[in-house]
Amino acid sequence: MALGMDSAADVAARLGTTGYLADDELATVVFLASRMQRPLLLEGEPGTGKTALAEALSESLELPLVRLQCYEGIDASQALYDWDFPRQILHLRALEAGGQVDADDAEKSLYDERFLLARPVLAALRQAPAVLLVDEVDRADDEFEAFLLEVLSTWQVTIPEFGTVTAQEPPLVVLTSNRTRELHDALKRRCLYHWIDHPGLEREVEIVRSRAPEVSEALARQVVGLVQQLRTRDDLLKPPGVAETLDWARALTYLGTTDLDLASAAATLGALLKYREDADRVRAALDRMLAR
Amino acid sequence: MTLEHAADEVLLGFARALRAAGVPVTQDRALGYLAAVAAVGADDRQATYWAGRATLCASPDDLARHDQVFAAWFDPRDGLPRTAPRAASRPSTAHLLPEAEGAGGTGGDEEDVVRAAASAEEVLRHRDVASLDATEKRRLASMFVRLSLRPPVRRTSRHRRWHRGEVDASRTLRASLRHLGEPGDIAWRRRGTRPRRVVLLVDVSGSMSAYADALLRLAHRLTQSAQATGGTVETFTIGTRLTHVTRALRSRDADRAIVAAGEVVPDWSGGTRLGETLRVFLDRWGQRGMARGAVVVVFSDGWERGDAGLLGEQMARLRRVAHRVVWVNPHRGKAGYEPLQRGVVAALPHCDDFLAGHSLATFVDLTEVIARA
């Protein structure tokens, strides 16, 4: 599955066209994932662009994006496939109404492709080539990881009544995790691993400029400078991620701010910090941080 | 040809060195590494580095180890690349607590500092919190974050759906009605569980003042982690008066919560009238429902100024209402301690558990006892 990506630089350039700025390491890992046909496991702080990478990949490669949002209690019938039971019953009733029914034929016709409800994973295998995003896999129970194992190593789903569905071409799989629990080693072994960190000052300014072009260069620089200062403080309950930086820069621009000052920063702090304790702390130190 | 062979050997040797340094590198990971390097080109040093991080590592800890071994393996300064990872994997446990933050030394010893800090944490876990200085207290406070409580559970009369157990007839019937009376899947159910309430009674009298801060921190931590799992923890301070501090401890930030609790407690470091305060607790809160079926934990050294008989009486009353009564005494874990104080002697017959509570390690044990109650 080359997908037209021949080198890491090529990957970075393609992602760049959608406004997603990947550093060299991330570009190399994405390139390897597509070349080695391995899923890509992304971990990192919330708001560092893990989900955005999958979206950018599907957009730049012009492939459909199939998203599987994991949650506690998710099971195979919600992720892989399910049978459309009411339709099967209707079908049986229709056969009965039509007269002479051969039991074997009727049963066979029940497990037909048209009664198969394709959930995200099966949908991705059928639509291949596609980008499959398995989001926040750490939220699912450990048992669920076992369901993913077969798919992620052989690119096929076995349905007992129907047979095996195999992908024509393996999808590009991105798994994301916020590390609320440790994933099983068997799953990790099948994946390429990448830890996404908060970007540095220059890169974050670039990201703000490319994602939110309406924000002026000067404002972007001020905003990012302040956010980076905040991330070095260790007393915040939730340090802001890149997504929050973007929100804040946009909020300031909508208010017509061109130069970050105490009043406008304090008024829009809610876009950046989502805990009252954090907001109070930062508000108290804001004038000192702005003076820097 | 020989050159290619040598490249494979170098890469596999690196994978082995990484395994020696503690990264769980399996055979398939090593093969994946070779394939990845082949894809990016072995002549590209930077790409080889990234390929190693992507294929051989599985957690942020692994990444740090990989970087160290990579540096040692691919630019050998002294011509003996193999010794570097070996040395890095040997734990140095010689010193217990680093004297000061400045004792770290030069950049090359960074690894040693990290390891020393790790062992220092281990030491701190077992130290008596009353004997800590301000710096150690601050460090210990940050370690409280890792403490968590699995709330104890009780069975309820309501059933919940489950994938096995007894047949849930009504749900099965309703599901089959939806499908025009066709028999469908059988639904199952089992008895549900609910978290039990945990009530903490913290003695803040003068004789307990050295432990009050740590105990409130513990109470805050338990309150927070129980909240996350749907349980409730209620906290009262006892001394000469009874004060309900749960509301103050609900603030997410530990330092703020403790300051807020300190503001509402009027009898900080005062005398001890355990029996009377316990009676007030039972009259005003406990008997009405707060202590009913709950796990009640009393943190006190048992130095009773008032009538020990009253304390015994009230403890007996508490025992009858509560599901389980746990007494935590900070002096219990110390050598030569015997439960001779009048208060302890009066209260002990009415307790289910009598635990030590002077260090973080004993607090962890306490959370286990509560969870299993």
From TrEMBL, chain A:
For this UniProt entry, the molecular function terms from Gene Ontology, in alphabetical order, are: ATP binding; ATP hydrolysis activity
Q: Which residues form a coiled coil?
A: none
Q: Which SUPFAM superfamilies does the entry link to?
A: P-loop containing nucleoside triphosphate hydrolases
Residues spanning the signal sequence: none
**One Pfam match, by short name?**
AAA_5
Domain AAA+ ATPase intervals: 36-211
Kindly give the PANTHER family that the UniProt entry links to this protein: MAGNESIUM-CHELATASE SUBUNIT CHLD, MOXR FAMILY PROTEIN
Q: What is this protein called?
A: MoxR-like ATPase
From TrEMBL, chain B:
Family matches, as Pfam families: VWA_CoxE
The protein here is known as: VWFA domain-containing protein
Species this protein is from: Nocardioides cavernae
The record's region (Disordered) falls at 82-110
* Residues annotated as domain VWFA: 195-365
Which residue spans adopt a coiled-coil conformation according to this UniProt entry?
Answer: none
The source's superkingdom equals: Bacteria
